[in-house]
């Protein structure tokens, strides 16, 4: 199955300062900003486009339960995940299972832009958090 990088997720502490950096230094454009308080997300998200590529800046909104807060406590701010767009997420999940790659329990969801996504288990991906996603309504 074909895959291409969809976006890179960056864990940040100060989303406003990070947006400023991406706009001023990397000449990016803020294309969306929203907060998700869904369990297992609890983050403010800013989507920045830099020359056609997308970056998701992720700041925790709850320091006790946000996975981004946990990530920052364990590893510090920086690259949180790399998202790969697949043609069909359901078929990709079958392929992953056949390859013995697990996904993170409870991470399958649809975001506000209609993107279906799931995270692969970092224990099976050499420690990198990888998101698979598709856009079924495009």
Automatic annotation (TrEMBL):
CDD domains linked: MMCE (cd07249)
Keyword check for Translocase: no
InterPro entries with a match to the protein in the record: Glyas_Bleomycin-R_OHBP_Dase (IPR029068), MeMalonyl-CoA_epimerase (IPR017515), MMCE/EMCE_epimerase (IPR051785), VOC_core (IPR037523)
Annotated VOC domain residues: 4-135
Pfam families tied to this protein: Glyoxalase_4
Keyword terms: Metal-binding
PANTHER family per UniProt: METHYLMALONYL-COA EPIMERASE, METHYLMALONYL-COA EPIMERASE, MITOCHONDRIAL
Family recorded in the similarity comment: Belongs to the methylmalonyl-CoA epimerase family.
Name under which the protein is recorded: VOC family protein
